[in-house]
Amino acid sequence: RTVKRQGDGFGFRLSGDYNQSENTDLNGQADVNYRHGGLDVFGMVGIARYVTRAYDRLEQQTFADTLWTQRNNYRNDTDARTLRGRVGFNYDFNDRHSIGVRYDIVKTLRRHDNGTFKSDVQAFGEPYDVLSSATSMRSDAKPTHSLNAYYAGKIGKGELEWDADYYSSDNTDRSQNLENSAEHDDRTVTSENVVSNKLAATKLSFTHPLWGGSASVGGEYTFTDRHDDYINPEGYVPTSYSRIREHNLAAYVQYSHPLPFGQVSAGVRYEHVDFDYFDNSTFMPGQSRTYDNLFPNVSLSGQLGKVQFQLSYAARTQRPSYSQLSNNVLYANRFTWQTGNPRLKPTITHDVTAVAMWRFVQAMVSYKLNRDYIFYWGTTVEGQSAVTLLNRINHGRLPQLTVFVSASPTIGLWNPSIGAGMLKQWLTMTAAGEERRYNKPVFMAQWNNVFNLPAGFVVNADFNFQSRGNVQNLEMKDEHYVLNIGVRKSLLNDALSLELRGNDLLHRMKDGTLMYFERAMMYDKSWSDTRSVTLTVRYKFNTARSKYRGTGAGHDAKGRM
Fold first, then answer.
1. What distance lies between CA 88 and its chain's CA centroid?
2. DSSP E strand stretches across 340-413
3. Residues 19, 23, 24, 25: is their CA dihedral positive or negative?
4. What whole-number distance in Å separates Cα of residue 62 and Cα of residue 162?
């Protein structure tokens, strides 16, 4: 007689969240699985409603031929409802070969944004105007499609893995800004933003024993095609029709070898990128780029006595998101616009990191040198010196040092995790006519607690702190204190669980940020309805860990979309 393997036959998992803040959020999901032999067939359906409220108090000074001062109060309410689904299968022919296919679909049923914006404007300290705006935005989105297929198998002593992905999304945002002026002309600014994304990607890797170690070779190819049209019929900001087409081909080789006290690994990745930019169907060579880069990496890990350690160096790239590359000009009011920058270059990061662990204590030191880092910036509009155009720019270099120490002991029923760290950078920039230093460190601390109580109760109490300081070219003027408390109860041999959580109970997840631009200063105080209570209910029957082995391709490009 044999024992039936867990997960054979039919299994399912049900979960639901009720979150109450200033608004009510709802989220429900059902996962089903059928397993027989080497075959798994699975599916998922979920529906969610998210309602959020965000606030901004924004003070802005523009140093042009006139000293313009704005004091703005902004509130925005978002109501979004989404339906998501998944179907797929994976099949293990034996312990050496496996295939699978997974299809995901997401449909935005509703996305409404409504905001109010009030601006008190002064010129050289004297009242100039009072602007009151009512903004609204409606989204009309087609379903987002994601398809993944994979093969994983053993060929001789080697292991072969292959993935292929397809992704598409289409979305149209229609907005209206009714701007009333107490002293000058009123404006009605409407816009339509149509974005279409297409992606196809594949990757292949092969790993084989070699010279007492292990060698891996592989490659990845990603093709993306994005159309981004922004239309303003009134002509207050430019209408634009842009297209970005990108080919990304990468290849890598990696080798690792055991040592008497650990393991050493080294490799290199090569990337070739063709980035083509089109404006109104016209190829723009000045904004188009071709990149050829090598990204080496090396690591040493092991154990000396009771201390485990790892030393590593890696070079990597972070390419700008497609919204950062867009030349669409968004209208906030007649003094402030926002756009992207098609001329942005990717950021190259060189990272040296050391990690050590002794018993329940861990320490980490990381030094990063970022080249062509992407900063938030603002310039004046040509011919309209009173208007600040917010955008992004590259800056030469940004060194950053991160240090963090944590301890996670177990004391009876109590599992605390205590940590403290620091982020320190070195940056000097010329902004608003002065050379400014952004070198103040940011300190962080956390104290997380888990109490495993009798009768299936688990209590969590987590506290996080972040100090004032500089991050990039921003000065954070507010400290963060975030307290979350929750209790979980398991029933029916852990088949049913109930969890009640209080989130951001102190309501101190608020940002106060000071920024200096080319000819402007901006102080932004922002917060949202993060203080909330969440009730989560989960029920599972005959569930088992997924055997789907697809890892996907083109992840970076999807994130940029």
1. 26
2. 347-358, 361-381, 384-407
3. negative
4. 54
Contact 320, 275 (CB under 8 A): no
C-alpha distance from residue 14 to each of 27, 32, 85, 183 (Å): 11, 9, 14, 58
Q: Dihedral sign, CA of 32, 555, 225, 272?
A: negative
pTM, 2 dp: 0.91
Q: Does residue 69 register a pLDDT over 80?
A: yes
Give SS3 for 559.
helix
What backbone phi and psi angles, to 5 degrees, belong to 408?
-135, 75
Radius of gyration of the chain (CA): 27
Phi-psi region of 260 (alpha: psi -120 to 50; beta: other; left: phi over 0): alpha
CB 546 within 8 A of CB 150: no
| CA 100/CA 230 separation, integer angstroms | 39
Tokens coding 447: 């104290």
CB atoms within 10 A of CB 27: 17
**pLDDT, position 84:** 98
Q: Say what the pLDDT of residue 295 is.
A: 97
So what's the pLDDT on residue 383?
Answer: 84
CA 53 → CA 25, 37, 73, 462, 529, distances in Å? 12, 49, 14, 24, 6
Which range, of 1-15, 288-302, 415-429, 454-468, averages the lowest pLDDT?
1-15
* Distance from C-alpha of 174 to C-alpha of 269, rounded to nearest angstrom: 42
Alpha-carbon distance 469 to 192, whole Å? 39
Query: Residue 219 and residue 270: Cα distance in Å, rounded?
Result: 9
